[in-house]
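Batch job 17 of 40 flagged for manual review because the log was empty.
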Amino acid sequence: MQLLALLCTVGLLLEEVHTWGFRNGIFHNSIWLEQAAGVYHRESRKGRYQLTYKAAKAVCKYEGGHLATYEQLEAARKIGFHVCSAGWFDQGRVGYPIVKSGANCGLGKVGIIDYGYRLNKSERWDVYCYNPKSKECGGVLTEEQRIIHSPGFPDEYQDQQICYWHIRVRLGQKIRLHFMDFDVEDDPACLADYLEVYDSYDDVSGFAGRFCGDSLPDDIISTGNVMTLKFLSDASVTAGGFELQYSVFN
């Protein structure tokens, strides 16, 4: 009886959301998959939580997009988009999407952690933009193997880039990053341009390394089924960029 009830519940759920289903062990909406990757997180190049509402809208508009709606943010979250940083989205709301709660992220809740409509538009947060066509870097990746490279590779990447790749695969699988080419502005402290790798859902916990220069980093293996990559370039010197491959193993 319990099994029958469970099957009925799943049937009703699938009937309600129509195109949701499993592919490669990952539950997602096939129509929204590419579009939801057009939702992305931006922070000021001065650091986290520096954007007023006006500045946040300007960031998205400058890149050819607009502030993400609640529905777009939620659709992205449902395919694995998880960023533990509060940001502006449509109509002056502030919040962030998470798929897994943690001590510093969600406080026991999962979903869109919504701070509501902000009366003071001078408050400073990050921003969530929506641009499915023109965004050159970042996204939610669920394939078992994929090449990731800096924007414009093998040509030089542009300055003032902030890109996030969130890799989500099946539970029980691990992820191996293998670097094939690497040329990022050399800086002794890696403060100008860099690639960061996190063994987690976001760039808050699980720090695995920050890389710059032209030496190939060693392979990196996750401890679980998620990884996050963040690439940042400042407003000055650029370089050839990087190319890496991630692959999945049990």
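Reviewer: the log was empty due to a logging misconfiguration, but the result itself is present. The helical segments are 2-17, 33-36, 53-62, 70-78. Unflagging and moving on to job 18.
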